[in-house]
Amino acid sequence: MKDIIDQLIYERAPWLQTKTTGAVISDRILKTCLRYSKTIETANTLKPLNGAEIFDKLCGEIVQDTEIMGCSNIPTTGPALIVANHPTGIADAVFLYSAIAKTRPDVYFFANSDVLRVFPQLSEFIAPVEWRKEKRTKTRTKETLEFTKQAMKEQRIGVIFPSGRLAKRTGLSLHERSWMSSAVSLARKYNVPIIPAHISARNSILFYLLDIIHPTLRDITLFNETLNKKDFHFDIRFGQPVYPYMLSPEPEIATSDLKRRVLNLNPRHFLNSRRLRIHRSFNKITYQT
After folding, report:
1. Does this model's pTM top 0.70?
2. Which of 61, 183, 210, 231 could join 217 in a cystine, given CB atoms 3.0 to 4.6 angstroms apart?
């Protein structure tokens, strides 16, 4: 397990493998800060488990402080797609699984195929995706399409993060990246409802500090940023189903509309809207008197 995790780390930050003094020191410091030993220990604990047991174990470890609203919008049967923003990384899938699995144990996730290199037993739950254009191949794309076709045939519910990447930090705030039109295309192809889902959460300060220094440092923190989430609050809100006929026939416009629906579920959006209504109400009362 250690060899696989090391390989994933060095693929994201190949400079750490060089024999320079700076790289050696950085490697040691980062592995200490990012609880490398704990990561290996956890991975070895999960290794003998099946896919459902891995999710359940992770949920028990990190899902401690969560507020969930709108679960009644999730269909209890039939194929569907949950479309969500992507603020933290792997933890987003774990927290969504915790919110969804009791109602829909047949849930699956469109996720980076690298996760199957660590835990191949998750193959039942992962539609393998290569979000990086430069690494896509016909074989990998075919695997994704075949998994999706079978899942739809079995009337399962899928979860997709159309940005394909974590939210971008701008100053002290997070901003969802541009969305790909894959969710809209799949919903149309299989004529299934889309359930918007918004996740309010964040990563550690260390994650964002490393992001400022260099993106490769940010990328290698994702294991730690999954295991540390027991100390973080997650707010998850599911919106009303959106059917393909309700969206524009233009993929880009439809995707923008879907993204807007997801972001509008943000609790801060409701708070700002409420403040705006109150402000307008006071103006109206003042005007009338």
Report:
1. yes
2. 210
